[in-house]
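Hello,

Our lab assistant flagged a job as stuck in the queue for most of the afternoon. It eventually completed. Since we weren't sure the result was trustworthy after the delay, we are filing this so someone can double-check. Below is the sequence as submitted and the structure that was eventually returned. Let us know if re-running is recommended.
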Amino acid sequence: MNELPKNLGDLKSYGYTPKSVKHELRNNLIGHLKAGTNPFEGILGFEDTVIPDIERGILSQHNMLLLGLRGQAKTRLARLLVNLLDEYVPVVEGSELNDDPLHPISRFATDLIAEHGDDTPIAWLHRSERYVEKLATPDVSVADLIGDVDPIKAATLKLPYSDQRVLHFGLVPRAHRSIFVINELPDLQARIQVSLFNILQEGDIQIRGFKLRLPLDIEFVFTANPEDYTNRGSIITPLKDRIESQILTHYPISIEVARDITEQEASLSQEQQEAINIPDAARNILERIAFAARESELIDEKSGVSARLTISGMENLVSAAERRMLINKESSTTVRLADFWGVIPSVTGKVELVYEGEQEGPYNVALQLIGQALKEEFVQYFPNPTKPAKGEKKDPYGTIRAWFAGGNVLELENDSSDTEFHGLLDKVAGLSKCIETYEPTTSEKDLHFFMEFIIHALAEFDELSKETFDRHISFRDVLANMWNSDDDADEGDDI
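-- returned structure --
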């Protein structure tokens, strides 16, 4: 920074050439494309869809609208555009509109340059300071965005209201030579959206009837949910027409990408990462919950299911295992299927239910999603219990079924120690053999997770009976449970 020019005369000698924001973005993107580097680090799953559309928009020097459901990284994408600006640009020192010293637009800057000439002081603005973001809310006014007459300034400076110096500029003029982002554009009232017409088309603004023409240089990025998402509002057609590129975002299209996003974004402490083992199957089940939710008839598809569901779900899953570990004074543990009950708060708070879902209740809907995810993941490792594989003469779960059919009951305590948990699962005949047959490379750490996985899956496929209590889950033979119910009914009749 020390070698950069400090006044207008030095800047002219320095060889500085003014560039528009859109030109800056375009030039720097071209550099990245030629070098094969990625200016959108941390954005996963958009490499072949959204990012190429954004790059085309930048090369075309367009204002952009990022349109998609909640939790699709729209705001993060907009913020990363700052990386494509030049690192520093010169501004007239003290200017509230980031005036370019060679192309000033404000009264303050033009007067200062007229008075001091080549001695006009120059400041250098870092690209991180050239980003302005506004969340659209119904109470946003034209004065907030564009500006208004400031009576206090008029009185203090003893100026008439006809003097431009009495104006207080809003966020948009102050974003001159910057990136300006308006989040949730449909929430902006229609009459406020109208105030953006001239800026987008001609680059100028009007404030309270002033004959004011400010050739603003701004890259506009808007974000919005699809217009039919809610009844909060919509983007008025003339405004949408002036936004040159509309770019559709989307949710992850594969479990692998979804997992990468969750692992990147989940906030896990170093202690948790070192102490808690999370089998790959558990990570996949968590992602499948979100995929199942997006397809569920009980959940409003128009509201979407945010990626934040699995991010907070991962944090809760690990915390459920950590809590159990701490209660039992253990130094390490492996996530269990029972720990997924700790994920339910992350599910119920992230989905909008339709009428049928409300009738079921958020808790039951969450349980159904977990059950569906578990079944879908199970058949990636083991045969489907209800659909024997071709050529399979022997029931792969026959020994396990026989153990339960013999009157045995498996009761797994939610907060049992690993020693107790392993001991109970080891008693179930056929579990180890099943894993040995179909998943022979299973690690010692993951072994009992897969044992529990088989038990829960058989229950989800209605091959075993499962009862959930506050502190434990009980598994038994389906027919034995039916006979017990009949016996209870007969006893009731005798009474």
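-- support follow-up --
The delay was a queue issue, not a problem with the job. The result is valid. Residues 308-327 form the longest helix (20 residues). Confidence is low (pLDDT under 50) at residues 485-495.
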